[in-house]
Amino acid sequence: MNIEKELQVAIISAIAKLYNAEVNESQITLQKTKKEFTGHYTLVTFPLLRISRKNPEQTAQEIGEALIKESTIIESFNVIKGFLNLSLSSAIWIGALEQINDNPAFGFKEPADDAPLYMVEYSSPNTNKPLHLGHVRNNLLGHSLCEILKANGKRVVKTNIVNDRGIHICKSMLAWKKWGDDESPESSGKKGDHLIGEYYVLFDQKYKAEIAELEAKGLSKDEAEAQSTLMGEARDMLLKWEDNDAETVNLWKMMNNWVYKGFDETYKEMGVTFDKIYYESDTYLVGRERVLKGLKEGVFYQKEDNSVWADLTDEKLDHKLLLRADGTSVYMTQDIGTAKLRFDDYPIHTMIYVVGNEQNHHFTVLSALLDKLGYDFGKGLVHFSYGMVELPEGRMKSREGTVVDADDLMAEMIETARDTSNELGKLDNCTPQEAEEIVRMVGLGALKYFILKVDPRKNMTFNPQESIDFNGNTGPFIQYTHARIQSVLRKAAEQNIDIPNSIGDVELSEKEEGLVQMLVDFPTVIQQAAEEYNVSLIANYVYDLVKEYNQFYHDFTILREENESLKAFRLMLSKNTALTIKNGMSLLGIDVPERM
User: Fold this and answer.
1) Helix (H) or strand (E) holding 551
2) Diameter of the chain by CA atoms?
3) Element of type H or E holding 543
4) Which residues, in sequence order, are CB contacts of 390 under 8 Å at separation 6+?
């Protein structure tokens, strides 16, 4: 079923007969008719004026009259300046709905065995702190993008790179070693990632106190930082780790395992999974080896202090450090190694990095470096660059411990959903078990939807109270509408009203035709969301659909409708609207309840 395609074919045929000219589909510009005008689709006639040699209004009038004569799908037309608004017959929309009804996976394509493979990297946590609100946006965007790509028939590998090495990891390790007194998740009752995060913050507090003390003795800030014994110990620990010192490595393994268990709990609650996890403690060696090989080949150069650099001025970039003077690697070196491993492991068609826009330059440089090293995939990397997420009170800072913890945030959202649902009486007819499932769906759905409805490229402010509202462009509003439709369908079943596969001849209202047209648009929206890497298109499509359905529900009867064919149509429309809501929300990683 492709109504727009049928229209294009009919318009091309009409033009050929009217003006004895051949046009192709690219010259036929069709849009959905704006709400203030009558019609379903609008033909823009301006690109056709060279062919018609007439003004826009005459051209539109002639094409409209020809279509009425020749096409069986167009019922009427009107001309507004150079725009031809076409109204399709009710039979077309009924037929379209029947086809949608026959396909529960409408809009979704099954990937073929030879479909292009997309690898999507997201999450990328550090093992020195728990996941926070910024990670929540990253994880939700990455997971949703994967689902949308799969719905477009792509094969997808969901991957994560864990930042489990580096000076920042050594900071929390050193703080635990100096002041931890053998504290563990078991002895403290804390999640492992939370526990280690506290030691990362503690290191920063101790370091700042040391710097302040040195400055009080008359040293400048730079001099104080250079003489910091604490930072010196952290650097020494990193060198010991890279030299495979047994005590340091064992401490690193123990603390990282605490963190991994904590991450797994958070991912499970968030509904996020991965097919393959890479660790920088493995990939940095591959990157280091490749950089040293590049140095021998003359691709890179070495300074007098033995640090290794890349000259990217030919690419209108700067000089980039790849190995420090002490031989330790930097993030860029690790990313080179990770990319090489991934393309060795999988036949990747497109590699997508879901990383915040503060790293735009980093990925431009990475692409140039991989290309310089002779990797074919270097220029084809995609940086899914998204904006920062803040709270109404401002930006978060991990080292200062002012971040919003992901676990706490999800728990708070579920509690807020419980309070709000009880206050509005949404759970009055539910069993305790049903109520618990619903508040979890609503709380997490509110969080996910509020974040995913925003264009990923934009910065956003997350407002927990606003997100849980049962009115407006929110997850709970959409979830409640789905539950409302399911209630209608249950009542129909209780009254032994079946929904037939075929509706028959019935005249529809403009609102009903418009709702079917929105359902017809679902595959196009899924395709556009994948092409533009913009998951917010799905979120806002579902909201618009829900808003339109609620107006229909308010204005028209369903079960009390006396015309049996019209009743059947409205039930079929309701059933498939609910299914499209459910399928659309599933692309966002959001569940919808059957009752509320």
Assistant:
1) helix 536-555
2) 94
3) helix 536-555
4) 396, 459, 460, 461, 462
Helix count and strand count (H, E) for the chain = 22, 14
Q: Which helix (H) or strand (E) holds 371?
A: helix 360-372
* Residue indicated by tokens 């006396």: 562
Beta pairing partners, 405: 132
Identify the pLDDT of residue 335.
95
464 belongs to a structural domain:
yes
pLDDT band at 255 (very low <50, low <70, confident <90, very high): very high
Question: Are residues 319 and 311 in contact, defined by beta-carbon separation less than 8 angstroms?
Answer: yes
Task: Please tell me the total count of domains within the chain.
Answer: 3
What secondary structure, in 3-state letters, does 326-365 show? CCCECHHHHHHHHHHHHHHHCCCCEEEEEEEHHHHHHHHH
Give the Cα separation of 234 and 167 in Å (integer): 7
Same domain, residue pair 218 and 74: no
142, 120 Cβ separation under 8 angstroms: yes
Phi, psi torsion values for 164, nearest 5 degrees:
-110, 15
Does position 460 have pLDDT exceeding 60, yes or no? yes
Does 106 fall in a domain? no
CA distances from 313 to 140, 190, 285, 318, 480 (A): 36, 49, 26, 5, 56
Whether 381 and 436 map to the same domain: the answer is no
Judge whether residue 399 has pLDDT over 90. Answer: no
Last residue of a domain, one of 63, 88, 113: 88
Q: Using alpha carbons, select from 81, 59, 62, 58 the residue that is nearest to residue 70.
A: 62
Distance CA 402, CA 7 (A): 57
Domain boundary residue among 341, 366, 390?
390
Task: With a cut of 90, say whether residue 329 has pLDDT above it.
Answer: no
pLDDT at position 401 over 70: no
Query: Which token pair is 568?
Result: 């059947």
Cβ count within 10 A of residue 76: 13
Length of the chain counted residue by residue: 596
- pLDDT tens, position by position, 257-293: 999 999 999 999 999 999 999 999 999 999 999 999 9
Q: What tokens were used for 72? A: 């069986």
Statement: residue 395 has pLDDT above 70: no
Residue 402, pLDDT > 80, answer: no
CATH number of the domain bearing residue 62: 3.30.1360.70
Backbone angles phi, psi at 78, to 5 degrees: -145, 155
Per-residue pLDDT reduced to its tens digit, 76-98: 999 998 899 999 999 999 999 99
Q: At what angle do helices 564-586 and 536-555 cross, to 10 degrees?
A: 160
Separation between Cα atoms, residue 183 and residue 195, nearest integer Å: 9
Q: Enumerate residues 6+ apart whose C-beta is below 8 A from 76.
A: 68, 87
Instruction: Read off the pLDDT band of 171 (50, 70, 90).
Output: very high
Range of the domain at 215: 122-390
Binned at pLDDT 50, 70 and 90, residue 404 comes out as confident
What are the residues whose beta carbons fall under 8 Å from the beta carbon of 318, sequence distance 6 or more? 312
Task: Report whether pLDDT(398) > 50.
Answer: no
